[in-house]
Specification:
Blueprint lengths: L1 E7 L3 H11 L5 E2 L8 E4 L2 E6 L9 H9 L3 E11 L6 E5 L2 E2 L16 E2 L6 H14 L7 E4 L12 E8 L1 H4 L2 H14 L19 E6 L6 H7 L5 E6 L25 H15 L4 E6 L6 H13 L3 E2 L7
Parallel strand pairs: 1-4, 1-5, 5-10, 6-9, 11-12, 11-13, 13-14
Antiparallel strand pairs: 2-3, 3-4, 6-10, 7-8
């Protein structure tokens, strides 16, 4: 089983960390993947293609078909954009589980799809915070998770690691070095223990499935920054389309409220469960982000699906 790191030469926030990572010991050229060069270091494979980071689908499956090596996880190195232009280092799972069949995802993926979230997301956020602080990147750079969004399609547990939010910061060498160190230390390439290996979870098997809130999931982040917390999908309010029961003349409750919110929750739960075999997936709700009818409908649907709701103390 190998780890697949994916970078693109058309993105300065992708190629900067890649160059810093490849300057570290142990790398050597690997096989071509349909013209895409690769680099090998222990059980890690790094691909460097020339296309949009969200448009090269199924790189995990394609690698397996060409090399015969099974892919255990995928890590994308990319840029982050934000209206605020605030400098940031971010991590997030991927998918567009709320989109309907026939919709065209604006940034890759497939309607109603989400990749299994990489179990390293929570542990790596905490590791990244430590690296950023040690290299004096904070408080200038915000270190945070983002909600689940965009493509490309993968079948393996996946996460994006990003530098934001403008070209000035995408090209920052200190930020690139921090991301390279995150990958280096997080995968144990320097000889230390890898960080975020679910198979060695020390008996802590509760996993947070975030539901509701804004794109930077602040209520969920309050819990995730604590040691030992595992993280699955993070579904923000904009990925939970719900039709108002008054305006749509529906019944207040899970069955009477239209929209793709139930699909988004179900897909996110199922793929999180697949990523954490043996784990107990608990939904954590950002209660203040919902109207009363929304919260009632969501909690009712979670009960119908036998998805337990967790309070902050349940995850630590």
């Amino acid at each position: 089983m190998v780890t697949l790191i994916v970078a693109t030469t058309v993105d300065p926030a992708s190629i900067g960390p890649t160059s810093a990572l490849l300057s570290m010991p142990g790398w050597h050229p690997g096989p071509l993947l349909q013209g895409i060069p690769s680099f090998v270091n222990d059980e890690v494979r790094l691909l460097k293609h020339d296309n949009s980071i969200v448009r090269e689908d199924h790189l995990d499956r394609r690698w397996e078909e060409v090399t015969g090596e099974a892919v255990d996880e995928v890590i994308f190195l990319s840029r982050h954009t934000a209206v605020s232009n605030r400098p940031s280092l971010t991590i997030h799972p991927i998918g567009v589980p709320h989109l309907q069949e026939g919709n065209v995802p604006p940034t890759g993926g497939k309607p109603g799809w989400a990749a299994p979230p990489n179990p390293r997301i929570g542990p790596w956020l905490r590791l990244l915070k430590g690296i950023a602080e040690a290299h004096n990147l904070t408080p200038e750079f915000e270190v945070t998770l983002e909600a689940t969004h965009h493509g490309p399609e993968t079948n393996s547990p996946t996460m994006f690691v990003e530098i934001g939010s403008t070209e000035e910061y995408w090209k920052r060498q200190d930020a690139a070095q921090a991301i390279a160190l995150l990958v280096w230390e997080g995968l144990g390439l320097g000889g230390g223990a890898a960080v975020g290996d679910w198979k060695r979870n020390d008996g802590q098997n509760k996993v947070l499935l975030g539901i509701g809130g804004g794109h930077y999931v602040p209520r969920h982040m309050d819990i995730i920054v604590k040691d030992g917390v595992w993280v699955g999908h993070l579904i923000s309010g904009y990925s939970l389309p719900m039709e108002d029961p008054v305006s749509s003349k529906g019944q207040e409750g899970p069955e009477g409220i239209g929209g793709t919110w139930k699909q988004a929750i179900k897909v996110s739960f199922e793929t999180t469960k697949a990523a954490f075999p043996g784990g107990e997936i608990l939904a954590h709700l950002d209660h203040k982000s919902f109207k009363s009818w929304q919260k009632k409908a969501i909690t009712g649907f979670l009960a119908d699906q036998n998805i337990k709701i967790g309070k902050p103390g349940h995850f630590c």
